Amino acid sequence: MPFETGQLQQARVSNARQRALMDMMGGVLEVKKEDILRMVIPQPAFMAKADALWTEEERKQFKDYEKKVKELNEERDKYRKSLETELKKLQNSIQESTQNFDEHLKRLFERRVKAEMVVNQEELKINNLVFSLLLDEELSSREQFLNNYLLKKQEEKSGTSIAIQKAREDLDVFKEHHDNLVAEDKILERSFKKEFSEMSGHQVDILYKLFKRRPRVHKQKTQADVNSLVPYGDRPGSGKLSKDNFAQLMKSMDELDNINNMPEGLDPSVWEHFCISRRAKVENEYKVKQKAAGLQEMMTFLRKRLEDDEAVQHEIERVFHELIRLQEEKVKFQVNLTIQILLKQGQVELENFQLILEYSDAILINKNIIEDLNSVIRTQGQKKVASMMESKEVHKGIYQIEWEHKKMEMEMEDLNQKAWDIQMLFFSRDRQKYLNEPNYENVIAIEIGIMEQTINVIDKTHKKNVEHCKKLLRKLGRYSNQKDIANYMLSCNLREELVAISERQDICNEMGSKLTCEKIAKERYDNLLKKQKLTNISKQQAEQISILQAEVERLRMKTFPALIPM
């Protein structure tokens, strides 16, 4: 390793080109502008000294240093502004590219939505077609099944109709034989009394009772009887059974025809003839019963066939109605087709509209019809608004007329009240005199003259009264002064008397028991008399003062001018 390191160092030293690049350009071939702006201009060494110690050369170097620093800062500012401008351009370009990308993405998304919508519509059409085909196939298969079933039932109906026709023909023939036998039986019964008319009535009645009498025959309940209840089943041995019954009946009739059963007094030849007639009647009745039983069975068979025919007919009608309904439904599905229509938003008008995807109850209407209907609605609405405005104006006029009517009524009430006030107005004598007197001004002038004379007389009288009152006031003033002097003298005397009383009281207090009771009583009596006298004097003076005050008030009131009512 040390050997290899030494070789590398020698190679670097020997590489003059690389060394020159490192020395001259810092190891790079191209110097970038941002690298130059990152450079720092070194300060001169003399800047460590104080400014006063700098030489002229150093000052010039300092100015060059400041100039370089200033230029470097300006270049940095210019470069920063250019970078900011470029940054804004890049940001605007990025924003514009983003908007273009968003718009392009939006258009692509809209195209995708439209494509999906078209695909879904086509899928819906395919599903509707498949559903229509399946429904048509199902209806066709159902119709074919009903047609086959109807043909089968019609064949069955034709077979039952033929069987019913044949059964009715056989029934008619058998019924005719039965009716003939019944008629023969009735003829035999009616001809009985004619054949024995030569005999007495009692014997005829006895013979008739014997003629009606029948032997009791026990029926044999065999499998043939059970099978006879079923008209469709085979009845083996039914002929043999009827022969056995008939033989047993004839055997019983032989017992009844015995001579021992003959009534008394009857001719044997008549009895033989009676037995022959009764045997013929019994044989005929047996045949009638056999025919009736056969007729009943045939009628039961015919009724059963009719019921089967009616059931088949009802089934045919039901199938026929169902086939008609199926055909109508098929025609309806063939006519009422499902159609997909693209409608703009706002062109679907439904009651209680919600977000639904099926409009089975909707009706497709032409746009022109809706526009015509809307124009008619607008016209009718304008007419309605015009009629409402007209009605509004009419109501407004009615309200105005009512207001004017109320105003006139109130004015009428005011005028009536004024008329009533005028009627009830109080007229004084002066007003009556003014209205009644023709020369009212002359009368007023005369009254004014009289009133002036009266005022002059009153004025003179008033002046005299004032002079008299003034004299009286002066007199009362002098009298009042005299009273004041007298009161002052009395007060002085009273003060002296009080002093004398106090002195006497002191003397009495000093003398003590020397004063007798009589002296004390006399002094008290004198004091009471003085007090009463002074009280009377003060009352008289108070009365005089009140009289004088009343007189002064009266005189003062007389000085005011008196207004005499006219």
TrEMBL record:
Signal peptide: none
Coiled-coil stretches: 55-107
Record keywords, A-Z: Cell projection, Coiled coil, Cytoplasm, Cytoskeleton, Repeat, WD repeat
Database matches in Pfam families: CC_Cfap43
Main localisation: other
GO cellular component: a single term: axoneme
Recorded superkingdom: Eukaryota
Intracellular or extracellular location(s): Cell projection, Cilium; Cytoplasm, Cytoskeleton
GO biological process: sperm axoneme assembly
Protein name: Cfap43 protein
